[in-house]
Amino acid sequence: MARFEPFGEHAVNASWVAVQELQKLGLGHDINLHVAEVPVEYQAVQSLLPSLWTQHLPQLVVHVGVSGMATTVTLEQCGHNQGYMRPDNCSFCPKSCCCLEGGPDCIHSVIDMDAVCKRVNSSGLGVSVSVSKDAGRYLCDYTYYTSLFLGEGRSAFVHVPPLGKPYSAEQLAQALRAVILEMLELMEHNKGKNHCLHDQ
Hints:
Elements: E1 2-4, H1 14-25, E2 36-38, H2 42-56, E3 61-66, E4 73-76, E5 78-80, E6 106-108, H3 113-121, E7 129-132, H4 139-150, E8 155-160, H5 169-189, E9 198-199
Parallel strand pairs: 1-2, 1-3, 3-8, 4-7
Antiparallel strand pairs: 4-8, 5-6, 6-9
Helix pairs in contact: 1-5, 2-4, 3-5
């Protein structure tokens, strides 16, 4: 699991606080949870993510970021290759404005986020979950696309709202736990099935 450092108006990044709470909860005895902080920097993403995929050989990588516009826990269905014009925490922006020159415009997760959303919303958790197809064309989307490419679709991105708007860190952690367990269950159920991941 990877989450982002503070940036912009987010002096305290709700995603980090929620992931720390999730680390305390765990995902169960038979699931290894590795947590890493991802800098809000395009070049750091390009160097860090390949090493995380190589080092841990994960079944699934879940990225968690904060969105000031979110009021729900939002599951992102896909990552986008182009449109990155906003400078990062180091005032850097890719000259090409894209993640991977010549890469597909959009890569979808192998996980059906609508199915995950329905299952978690019907579980009585008390945290509202929604699905989005636009992770925002900033570091969240950039990271997600890169991870989807590296992991052949075995990645997910979850946007959480700022703390207290309306959920506590504990509620966000419970929601992340429920979401990730559903994702893993769906992946296990769909093992061996072919997926179309790339849109041109």
